[in-house]
Amino acid sequence: MRLLVVGAHGQVGTDLVAAAGAAGLPVRGLGSRELDITDAAAVQAALGYLAAGSAETGARGVVINAAAYTAVDAAETDREAAYAVNEQGPANLAIAAQRLGLGLVHVSTDYVFPGDGAQPYRPTDPTGPRSVYGASKLAGELRVLESHPDAHVVRTAWVWGTTGNNFVKTMAKLAATRPTVDVVDDQRGTPTLAADLAAGLIELAGGAVPGGVLHATNGGETTWFEFARAIFADLGHDPNRVHPTTTDKFPRPAPRPAYSVLSGEAWVNAGLTPLRGWRAALDATLTAHPEAFVPA
Hints:
Blueprint: E1 2-6, H1 11-22, E2 27-30, H2 40-57, E3 61-65, H3 79-100, E4 103-109, H4 132-147, E5 152-156, E6 159-160, H5 167-177, E7 181-184, E8 188-189, E9 192-193, H6 194-205, E10 212-215, E11 222-223, H7 224-234, E12 242-245, H8 265-269, H9 278-288
Parallel strand pairs: 1-2, 1-3, 3-4, 4-5, 5-10, 6-9, 7-12
Antiparallel strand pairs: 8-11
């Protein structure tokens, strides 16, 4: 297998390139500066390079798209840019991949659901995004599967990791600078380690799973408040410095899902390795890479 990782400089993309390299897979990573996925001609050229290299070596070429417009609040007033990156970009990738005989794995989000559920969302459950970001990501899913029926759409949630900006790094900074922190306790989901997600995406890319939608997160569920307490504890701070609050105390332009736990049942039924529990991922990562979470 030969991989092309699009969005290679983000949290998931960085770990995808690292994981592929560690597994000995030929991989090329392109960030937004190297490849504008809204440019159909540029996409065709980049994927053509992958197809040519794959044909020459007899390998299977697969594109993993981790690129996205993720500024959730900004998307509410920057709709055109959000749809360009989250809908048209994935469509360009799917059209070119289908034309060139390449596999495609496209990363999506829990925000495609309304967030009013009470049990883990399955891939077949009705969607109903309540934000421009979520709607643009759902539009991208539909365009991908319409243009490349054998492609895989993988929804995930609450991603964090050793690179980029994320909730864990924010909590580490606040733990070092504030006596107490208020964190919402009425939004429930599953923190997902980018490195674990990357490993799962590579396993999917190299398998023989029929195309369609799957969900991949670490196991279990929690609230942002409970997650923050766990982060404080793992960093050696008193978790009682984290105080619960409610979403209405932190008004944002884009609504956040109150419930966004994703079911991994279809992932396991497809023969794929389930991701470990979210707390195990947190404990192991903060122990192995404490330097990544030291505030600048």
